[in-house]
């Protein structure tokens, strides 16, 4: 029931949109998934990301679902995840890449269907709803989402979001944020340490 409620709320019409700094969102996500990062010895990196006209909580849910997915479906090596974005005319294309087990191309569309799973719960826990929520949020924002995997594993999730006009985005170009790398976390301390 809780999963259905989460899916119903995702991308709901009438959600307030405002400028959202994706760098701030990513810093919060890294704090939220700190336990998984430490458990799996994961490394999460992101480039300087744009400011979007979006709903902050939904954008965080979208990116956090993709990051959690990358941590969960790792291979023999520790998870390595990279988040970046490129401006393409009137939209931003985001890339969330990992070095995990990959996805067979014939299942690339099926993974976004609610309650569709490619693995048993014994292999990987979950209810098969996270990616369907991602799809609903992206479509609510006027974008699209898809996944591509390499021959030797690893997956890149792509999603697009319309770019704000130049006036809206002017404030976000004042200072370019630094890259953030979870290798900077001090695993001996209670609290994670991040670059300023």
What can be said about this structure in brief?
This protein is an alpha+beta fold and 196 residues long.
Annotate the secondary structure layout.
Layout: H1 2-9, E1 18-21, H2 22-32, H3 34-40, E2 43-46, E3 51-54, H4 56-72, E4 80-88, E5 91-98, H5 130-140, E6 145-149, E7 155-162, H6 166-169, E8 180-181
Parallel strand pairs: 2-4
Antiparallel strand pairs: 1-3, 2-8, 4-5, 5-7, 6-7
Q: How far is the N terminus from the C terminus? A: 40 Å
| Beta fraction | 15-25%
Which parts are unreliable, with pLDDT below 50 for 5 consecutive residues or more? 118-122, 169-178, 186-196
Spatial order of strands in the largest sheet? 6-7-5-4-2-8
Count of helical segments? 6
Helix/strand class: alpha+beta
Major pleated sheet:
6 strands, mixed
Compressed to H and E, one letter per element, the order equals HEHHEEHEEHEEHE
Task: Give the helix level as a range of percent.
Answer: 25-40%
Q: What is the tally of beta strands? A: 8
The whole-angstrom Rg is: 17 Å
**Given the C-alpha coordinates, what overall shape results?**
globular
Averaged pLDDT, please? 78
């Amino acid at each position: 029931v809780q999963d259905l409620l989460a899916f119903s709320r995702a991308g709901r019409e009438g959600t307030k949109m405002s400028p959202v700094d994706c760098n701030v969102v990513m810093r919060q996500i890294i704090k939220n998934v700190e336990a998984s990062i430490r458990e799996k010895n994961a490394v999460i990196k992101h480039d300087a990301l744009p400011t979007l006209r979006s709903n902050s909580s939904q954008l965080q849910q979208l990116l956090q679902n993709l990051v959690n997915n990358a941590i969960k479906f790792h291979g023999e090596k520790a998870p390595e995840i990279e988040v970046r974005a490129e401006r393409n005319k009137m939209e931003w294309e985001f890339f969330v890449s990992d070095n995990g087990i990959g996805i067979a191309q014939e299942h690339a569309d099926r993974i976004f269907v609610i309650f569709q799973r490619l693995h048993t719960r014994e292999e990987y826990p979950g209810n098969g709803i996270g990616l369907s929520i991602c799809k609903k949020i992206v479509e609510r924002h006027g974008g699209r989402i898809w996944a591509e995997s390499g021959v030797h594993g690893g997956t890149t999730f792509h999603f697009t979001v319309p770019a704000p006009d130049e006036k809206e985005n002017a404030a976000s170009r004042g200072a370019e944020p630094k890259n953030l790398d979870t290798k900077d976390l001090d695993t001996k301390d209670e609290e994670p340490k991040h670059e300023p």
